[in-house]
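User: Can you predict the 3D structure for this chain?
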Amino acid sequence: MEKQEDLFKKIVTDFQDKIYRLCWIYVQNGSECDDLMQDIYVKIWRNLKKFKKHSALGTWIYRVVVNTCIDFKRNKNTPNTVHLDKIDLERMTDGEKDVENKIIEYEEIQILQHCIRRLTDIEKAIIALYLEEFKYSEIAEIIGISEKNVGVKISRIKNKMKAFLP
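Assistant: Here is the predicted structure, written as structure tokens:
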């Protein structure tokens, strides 16, 4: 059986980039994103002993992340404004592409993030998990809705985002 500390280190190593990307959807400021991630890690650490393994570890982690992000945004009471701050390109790319491709990718990501920021908090969570290539069944379990409802919501979210495009 893994010790709690070893499991926690594994979680941080395996999930930190995905957690960062999900947090970035809710806050577009590096220091706020770091604070939010710290809150998430504290919640994961405190509740790791309570994890009952009824669901996959990743599903449980993302439920903690989504709920913490939504709570953070509610508590901060921030309007749904769009901030196109610069994103750390090293977190977005694999470092092997040339500069021109990085710029194009960066611009595409900015457009995508602009559209995502205009969504409701639940829509943000659903599309972020979809973009992280979670299965509909996993998204349903994390969000707490039916798998069929996930498919319907993703379709509606995509149409909504298309309407946001210039």
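The mean pLDDT is 82. Residues 4-26 form the longest helix (23 residues).
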